[in-house]
Specification:
- It is a single chain.
- The chain is an all-beta fold.
- It has 2 domains: 87 residues, Immunoglobulin-like (Sandwich), CATH 2.60.40; 85 residues, Immunoglobulin-like.
- Helices cover 0% and strands 40% of the residues.
- Strands 4-3-6-7 form a 4-stranded antiparallel β-sheet, with no helix packed on it. Strands 11-10-13-14 form a 4-stranded antiparallel β-sheet, with no helix packed on it. Strands 1-2-5 form a 3-stranded antiparallel β-sheet, with no helix packed on it.
- The two termini are 40 Å apart.
Length: 205
């Protein structure tokens, strides 16, 4: 997992002007979960390229960190979905234009990363289960991805390997005796495991 840039607060430049305080630091989302950060000036205009925006975040252990975004030519910067916190993090953000000192802070909430989903469908006749993991934008995971769904107990999850069609199969015989709720896990080759809360494995037929 990429570690977000952790920076010390911007250095004060003696005698330099202060960056104009934004009316807001707008954060919108792309379908894949990436956050688009756009600070806006009181007159509605954007800040120049190279402007740094600092917003609150958290590391993988939940400790507070600062996420730094650099504004490009269109007045926005991006934070990859993987670098966003696991939950919304309210706090304050600052904007620092090149060769200026940081603005006064404004309230901003950094949104939680989008998580993948896991569809678990059972064929009522055979009892076999089809497992379909989907990325936040709805696209499929690559073949060879490993998916774990709850099994008969927490030490024995059911592991499925995803095929070319983006799905995996669990035969009826491997299912638990009763419906089993729990957490699913998705591991794409070469990438960190992602957890999916509230996955229920159906009972065998």
């Amino acid at each position: 997992m990429d570690v977000p840039n952790v920076t010390t607060p911007s250095k004060i430049i003696p005698g330099a002007p202060t960056t104009e305080q934004p009316v807001e630091i707008e954060i919108t989302r792309k379908p894949n979960g990436d956050a688009v950060v756009t600070p806006k000036k009181p007159d509605g205009s954007t800040y120049p390229p190279g402007t740094k925006v600092e917003i609150p975040g958290e590391d993988k252990d939940g400790n507070p960190i600062t996420i730094t975004v650099t504004i490009d030519d269109n007045g926005s910067g991006e934070v990859p979905n993987d670098n966003l916190p696991k939950k919304d993090v309210p706090g304050t953000g600052t904007v620092t234009e090149p060769k200026k000192n940081p603005s006064q802070p404004v309230k901003v909430t950094t949104p939680a990363r989008k998580t993948p989903t896991l569809d678990v469908e059972q064929d009522p006749k055979t009892g076999d289960v089809t497992v379909t993991p989907k990325k936040p934008d709805g696209s499929k995971f690559s073949s060879g991805t490993k998916v774990e769904i709850p099994g008969k107990d927490k030490d024995h999850p059911i592991t499925v390997t995803i095929g070319e069609d983006g799905k995996g199969k669990v035969p009826n015989s491997e299912l638990p005796e009763g419906k089993t709720p729990g957490t699913g896990k998705i591991t794409e080759p070469g990438k960190p495991t992602e957890e999916v809360p509230e996955v229920t494995t159906p009972a065998k037929v």
